[in-house]
Amino acid sequence: MASSHNNLEASLMCSICIEIFKDPVILPCSHSFCKDCLEKSWSEKLRKDCPLCRHTTKRSARNNLTLKSVCESFLEEKRCRISAQNQGVICAVHDLKHELFCTDDQKLVCLKCVSEDHKEHNFCSITKAAEEHKNRLQKPLQELEGKLQNLVSKKSTFNTSATKLQSQGQKTETHIKEEFKKLHQFLREEEEARLSALRVEQKKKSEKITEKIAEVEGLHTSLSERIKNIKDDLGHDESLFLHKFSETEERVNFTVPDLKLDSGSVIDVAKHMGNLRYQVWEKMKHVCPNYPVILDPNTTTSNLEVSPDLTSVLCLIPFLSNSTATTCLTYILGSEGFSSGVHTWQVDVEACDHWTLGVVTESAKRLKKISSSNFLIYYINGKCSWTPVALKIKKVCIFLDVVKKQVVFSDPDTNVTMKSYSCEFTEKMYPCFLPISKSPMKILPSV
User: Fold this and answer.
1) What gap in Å lies between CA 429 and CA 421, rounded to an integer?
2) Is the model's pLDDT at 407 over the cut of 80?
3) How far apart are CA 348 and CA 310, in angstroms?
4) How many CB atoms lie within 10 A of CB 135?
5) C-alpha 236: how far from its chain's center?
6) Quick one: residue 72, left, alpha or beta (phi over 0 = left, psi -120 to 50 = alpha)?
């Protein structure tokens, strides 16, 4: 069957392009060619002769409608046959319809395949084989669907992260510009103050020099006139010269004062330029405080609001009367964990009615679970965890000694220790802040 198709296809091929005829035409010698192939062949020659037999003709080639119809039918049948083979309906070897499924070779077969290559094999119906194979795919299909849902969930999470990232970038850029705007403003004001001081000094000393210049000019005029008078006296005749000699002698004995500028008549450059950048940096401390701990906004819960400079935080939701220090989830951590050394930071809690402070382990940060097993103190509903007596304080100082494994909470105003912990922690320790009121909890700058 396949051989007959091949023979037929060969007879329907143009001898010029070696493909199935396209828009075939026939010559008087009965040979057919594609119309475009023949015209291209003739365009390169002076005579119109047949590309096969070289028979010359003066007439134009005629459309071979019968051959065109046969070619179109053959191509359509070939497309259908290839489609059927691709779909597994027709046997690619024998061009027969598949009738059975060989369970030994796990493939579809036609009846001729059974008699030739699959003797003594086991077979079943195509319907039964398809059902069994479909059932085999159910479990992995469900797993793939689960993975698809997981990907959809991850895509949603990633899209949310991308949106958050863009928002964070825009906000952070704005805050950076605002901070540098303050620094630029400070530097401009400091520059103007220093330039003003320089100009004032320059003006005062310039005025003094101007006075000295005027004094020199006056003295110069007076001395020039005196010298002129003396020269005039010297030009008189002897009698008159001797008669006015005493006056002339008095003019000659004139003492010229020694005019000098004050020692501070030049700009005190060292005062204006000495350690200029350091002095400006020293003055910048009041606008550039250093905080021993900075908050990490990526560790905060959604109901907290962090200041742009990452040094204060407040709770956006009302405090619930049944909340406790161990169940409250409104926390934020410091940006840096400590694994060595001694660290101290102070927190302003005066405006907070309810708060919790302390340090937590790196595992608590990783698990996002803050509990009483960490090193915390709290002040909630007028009750505090460090004394049986309610005590409202303004500041809390947290002292962390990683080497001695010690955490100490104290009141910096009274230097009284509120509570201390000693424990063998082997992880990084992170400052933890749990504001439970709408008033901000503020980290204080280093003194």
Assistant:
1) 13
2) yes
3) 14
4) 9
5) 99
6) alpha
Residue 263 has pLDDT above 80, yes or no: no
Q: Which amino acid is at 48?
A: K
pLDDT at 323 over 70: no
Q: How many CB atoms lie within 10 A of CB 266?
A: 12
Rounded-to-integer distance, Cα 435 and Cα 304, Å: 8
Angle, vertex CA 75, rays to CA 73 and CA 78, nearest 5:
110
Residues 6+ apart with CB under 8 A from 338: 400, 402, 428, 429, 430
Residue 159 pLDDT > 90, yes or no?
yes
When computed from its CA atoms, the radius of gyration of the chain, rounded to whole angstroms, is 53
Greater model confidence, 89 or 399: 399
The alpha carbon of residue 122 and the mean position of all alpha carbons in its chain are separated, in whole angstroms, by 64
Residues 6+ apart with CB under 8 A from 73: none
Q: Rounded distance, CA 433 to CA 347, Å?
A: 9
Tokens of 98: 């598949």
Q: Which residue has the higher pLDDT, 63 or 344?
A: 344
pLDDT surpassing 90 at residue 347: yes
Sequence-ordered list of residues with C-beta below 8 angstroms from that of 60, at least 6 positions apart, any chain: none
Q: What is the largest CA-CA distance in the chain?
A: 170
The CA distance from 74 to 4, in Å, is 12
| In the block, residue with structure tokens 């103007």 | 192
Distance CA 223, CA 232 (A): 14
Token duo for residue 184: 């630029």
Instruction: Place 32 in a pLDDT band, splitting at 50, 70 and 90.
Output: confident
Residue 39: pLDDT band (50, 70, 90) is: confident
Mean predicted confidence (pLDDT) in 366-385 = 76
